[in-house]
Write a structure and sequence with these properties.
Blueprint (H helix, E strand, L loop, with lengths): L1 H28 L4 E2 L12 E3 L1 H16 L4 H8 L2 H13 L4 H19 L9 H7 L2 H21 L6 H14 L9 H23 L2 E2 L1 H22 L5 H7 L1 H16 L12 H13 L7 H22 L4 H28 L4
Parallel strand pairs: 2-3
Antiparallel strand pairs: 1-2
Helix pairs in contact: 1-2, 1-9, 2-9, 2-10, 4-5, 4-10, 5-7, 7-10, 7-12, 8-9, 8-10, 8-14, 13-14, 13-15
Length: 354
């Protein structure tokens, strides 16, 4: 545990330093990574840069090389995500990468990660699906799809200041709280490092905006979170996959609701819109307070969404989880999400907010 108490703050401060330097100086020298705010789903009203993926990698690589805390097996496992990461990085830097290319690279990377680590979901406590998962090919396919969906879900929530990076940091801690703290290995150290690096980005993004996770950062942390959740249930049959689902229920619900909304309205399910919970909240608050909060609305709304999305993780970290309590928690969370979503839609429709 001593290594964690050392390596976590070191990675955090490394990420915070690199993010701060990017915040202060990047725009002076380059427009690479510039995120256009003219697109319908964008909520920032000034230049922002999708550099989170690079900052995460640079922080982890620097700390890993200097202190030599990651073994070759961990490094090789994470290299499985290289196809997805670099395709997403091209999108962040230059744009123009199709959704099909990003999805294909995500599923390829997820498959590689599952195959190389030999980690797959073997049960979800639903008999017919558990029967299918008893066949290895089905288990591998199901796991790879789940990791890909988690990666895309994290990209969905990278709109308001601090949500994607902040939630990734606390979700990783929640998952790690389920691990055996007496037997820390290289993978555990990597997950702590990733959490610390995300926290460093969060500090700048939450309060100042400008530096976002981007596709590369969101896809990467989403994939790692999806894999880490499967990994612990794979190694410990006493931890239900539903506990992991509860921890990531906000991005999962956001993904499912968005997909259902677009399909029922006969829209392309992959086409971005401004109907996410966080975009509805932003539009409502901006209309309510107008110019008084225009420069702070993104950060205020991001903080509110982050607090709401973090409630399951906070419960897992500080309280003893049971399948019954987690089941009740999932029902309450989804009910709260849908209620807030409905009320925001009513408010926006009645006030004819664009």
């Amino acid at each position: 545990m001593e290594i964690i108490l050392f390596i976590y703050p070191v990675t955090f401060f490394s990420s915070l330093l690199i993010t701060s330097l990017a915040y202060m100086h990047w725009e002076k020298f380059s427009n690479i990574g510039l995120d256009p705010f003219s697109e319908i789903q964008k909520l920032h009203n000034k230049n922002s840069f999708r550099l989170g993926g690079c900052i995460l990698m640079l922080s982890i690589i620097l700390v890993g090389l200097i202190f030599k805390v990651l073994d070759l097996k961990t490094v090789f496992s994470m290299l499985c995500l290289a196809p997805m990461f670099f395709i997403a990085l091209i999108e962040d830097f230059f744009g123009g990468v199709s959704i099909a290319a990003r999805f294909t690279s995500s599923i390829i990377s997820a498959l590689l990660l599952v195959l190389v680590t030999n980690v797959q979901l073997n049960y979800i406590d639903i008999n017919i699906i558990d029967f299918l998962l008893s066949y290895k090919v089905m288990a591998i396919t199901f796991t790879a799809i789940g990791i890909t969906i988690t990666a895309n879900s994290w990209n969905f929530i990278d709109g308001l200041n601090g949500v994607s990076s902040g939630l990734a940091s606390i979700v990783l801690i929640a998952i790690l709280s389920l691990y055996n703290s007496e037997n820390i290995n290289s993978i555990d150290i990597f997950l702590y490092m990733l959490s610390g690096a995300c926290l460093g980005i969060w500090v700048i993004n939450q309060f100042f905006g400008k530096i976002f996770m981007g596709d590369a950062g969101a896809y990467f942390v989403g994939s790692i979170i999806g894999w880490a959740g499967v990994n612990i249930t794979h190694k410990n049959e006493y931890i239900s996959p539903w506990i992991i689902f509860f921890i990531i229920i906000y991005p999962a619900t956001e993904f499912c609701v968005s997909f259902f909304r677009r399909v029922t309205k006969k829209n392309n399910p992959t086409k971005a819109d401004n109907k996410h919970l966080h975009t509805l909240l932003y539009r409502a608050v901006l209309n309510l307070y107008g110019k008084k909060l225009i420069s702070k609305t993104n950060s205020y709304c991001g903080g509110l969404i982050l607090l709401f999305a973090s409630l399951p993780s906070i419960y897992i970290i500080f309280f003893e989880e049971t399948l019954l309590s987690v089941s009740i928690g999932m029902i309450l969370f989804i009910f709260a999400y849908l209620t807030i979503y409905l009320l925001l839609n009513i408010y926006i429709d009645r006030n004819k907010i664009n």
